[in-house]
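Protocol step 6 of 9: fold each sequence in the batch and record its structure tokens directly after the sequence line. For illustration, a two-sequence batch is reproduced in full.

Sequence one:
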Amino acid sequence: MTPELHQFRFSHFNEKARWALDFKGVPHVRRSYLPGPHMLPITRLSGQRQVPVLRVGREIVVGSDRIIDYLETRHPAPRLYPPSEGAHRRALELQQWFDAEIGPTIRRAFFFDFLVDGDYAARAFTQGQGMALATIYRALFPVTRVIMRRDMQIDADGAARGRDRAREALDLIARTAGTDGYLVGEQFSVADLTAAALLSPTVFPPECPAGVPEPRAPGLRTWLARWADHPAVAWINRIYARHRGRSVERAA
């Protein structure tokens, strides 16, 4: 049974799950949704509204951390969990910290700038979608944008806190890994994958499938300029260049 990844194309948590599947060479189908209209089919599939969701036959796995754990159990090579007990524990601690403390807050800060230009944001979300669906979604996006801001509590205070947490995460990387090392031990692990994926909106590496339309909107340029000189941005680019690899997505 070919695994199905139910996802948003434009999402750092979904990129984390995609990367794990590609890194482990697990062929899979990607079923992409648009924010807002995704809620009904994802609720029917998994009993909740969040993506990513991995479906393998009758098995349903919700969340990027659980998806990685599932893959590590069933496809242990190449490994994402370090072999030693101490390194394994530290890698999972870092994954949990990035998932809980950095991913949601950086999303809030990013969207505060990104959603200012609604037409541009809608174009980013609808990349890869059919023309008819994209046209309808863009026309309705002002309503979707209101819902996104409400549900994710996107406001000036939340954005400021998110920028602070993003800088905290980048500083941790710079202290721990420099521009050329790893967060735990001497090999790529779930800690590096999680950090690079969840911080990918600070740079949008060329290898990241969730690209942004050109020319870039002023709000996005302002956002990216905040981080351009931070040494950890170079680390994110290097991790992507070394380890993102090719996609093993299959056609639906």
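Sequence two, same batch, same settings:
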Amino acid sequence: LLTKLPFIEAGEEVTVYRLEESSPMNLDKSMSSWSQRGMAAMIQVLSREEMDGGLRRAMKVICTWSENDVLKLGQVFIVKSFLPEVVQTWQKIFHDGTVLHLCLREIQQQRAAQKLIYTFNQVKPHTIPYTPRFLEVFLIYCHSANQWLTIEKYMTGEFRKYNNNNGDEITPSSLLEELMLAFSHWTYVYTRGELLVLDLQG
């Protein structure tokens, strides 16, 4: 995996793939499938200062052109790549196409969380004024780097982390914080212990 993404100043051509839904207006009854054909787009780096997380490296970009508006023109996005040590660890499981498998897994997990929050918002009390949602994450292929990456909308505003992957959580001091922690607990109960959505932040 490259330590730096080789974006040129004029922009970089990428192919965008999205996880499509059979019933996008009813996510709880919808079936997910990968788009058969990728859409072309051009992205340009806004900041070469990379933002590193525990598993991935991130870079801020802007969309300068996209086919069929698959990425919104002028929208700022975050492109993420998995750290080399993460890829190396997972190569024991995904022998071929490790990075692609990791990207697909990340996007499918995000979609599972999107479907759960959709149902949660329908069953939560109407007196709660918040309707949380998860960002859509796309799969992109960078041609010049021969590399699979993920891309998601860049969020602005005050950032808050509600819990982490270990289940450690903040002490809630507002209705919104209580709601987000309740959602994590609800996902475990609703799926009868099959899924637990953690690392809530935004």
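Proceed to step 7 once all outputs are recorded. Observation for sequence two: Helices lie at 84-90, 98-123, 175-190.
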